[in-house]
Amino acid sequence: MIQSMTGYGKSTAVFKNKKINVEIKSLNSKALDLSTRIAPLYREKEMEIRSMISKVLERGKVDFSIWVEKDETQTATPINGAILENYYSQIKTISEEKNIPLPADWFATLLRLPDVMTRTEVEELEDEEWNIVQNIINDAIAKLVDFRTQEGIALQKKFTEKIENIGRLLKSIEPYEQCRTERIRQRLTDALEAIPGIEYDKNRLEQEMIYYIEKLDINEEKQRLTNHLNYFMETMKNGHGQGKKLGFIAQEMGREINTTGSKSNLAEMQNIVVMMKDELEQIKEQVLNVM
């Protein structure tokens, strides 16, 4: 079963007074292109986080984010009472010594002074918290993989439909191919007979006809295209990681369809070739999104 490179996963957990959020999303890319936005507390684990992601996600443009939401009652910056009291005492002393009036609004004055409102504690990452973070990272990755798998099922269904359409169109060429020889022969004979006073060697004409028809023969192209159609279907069943291979097969299918078109000298056959190209183009557009 193939997988899409488009996916999304999110997971959350609560630890003490904060909510930890992990979000990961991916789009198509030729290789793994990973960008991260990591909360400061977890930046020391960035290489480990990247390793966790790259082990599971082989390709795609991946955006990973981890952020923390804290309880509002806990996030307010505390007032340093000791420093505030020291400032208060200094201002009163200076006021008395210099005969300077005391401020009318003490709080407005004191709260603007340096270090009165400063968070001094340094947060450290605990093992218990990191274990929780690892779990939600793995959960978010698993959800993204599930998303990719569901998208892959839809892609495989679409590819199967398009491959079957090309196969049916290829078979629909056969009736025109069978009558083409006689139509070519009749057209050349009519053209020769329309020239006044000309005589031609019928044996020589037959030889030239055989040569001409052999050049227009598309049996090899039909056989190769059929093989490519079957190979595409087999490759889809081999699991994820087949995107590049499917792209190469689609290119080979295009070559055989183009050659068939260049050898088709009937309008009906050329119309069928155009329809096959349209089906193949839709495959090529979507195969870029396959893992």
Please explain how this structure is put together.
This protein folds into 3 domains: 7-74 and 128-147, Ribosomal Protein S5, domain 2 (2-Layer Sandwich), CATH 3.30.230; 78-110, no CATH class; 153-287, no CATH class. The chain has a 4-stranded mixed sheet. It has helices at residues 46-56, 72-75, 81-98, 106-110, 127-172, 174-193, 202-216, 219-236, 243-263, 267-287, and strands at 7-15, 18-27, 32-38, 60-70. The mean pLDDT is 87. Strand 1 (7-15) and strand 2 form a beta hairpin. The protein starts with 6 loop residues before the first strand and ends with a helix. It is an alpha+beta fold and 291 residues long. The chain contains 10 helices and 4 strands; from the N terminus they run E-E-E-H-E-H-H-H-H-H-H-H-H-H.
Secondary structure layout plus pairing:
Elements lengths: L6 E9 L2 E10 L4 E7 L7 H11 L3 E11 L1 H4 L5 H18 L7 H5 L16 H46 L1 H20 L8 H15 L2 H18 L6 H21 L3 H21 L4
Helix pairs in contact: 1-5, 5-8, 5-10, 8-9, 9-10
Summarize the structure.
This protein has helices spanning 46-56, 72-75, 81-98, 106-110, 127-172, 174-193, 202-216, 219-236, 243-263, 267-287; strands at 7-15, 18-27, 32-38, 60-70.
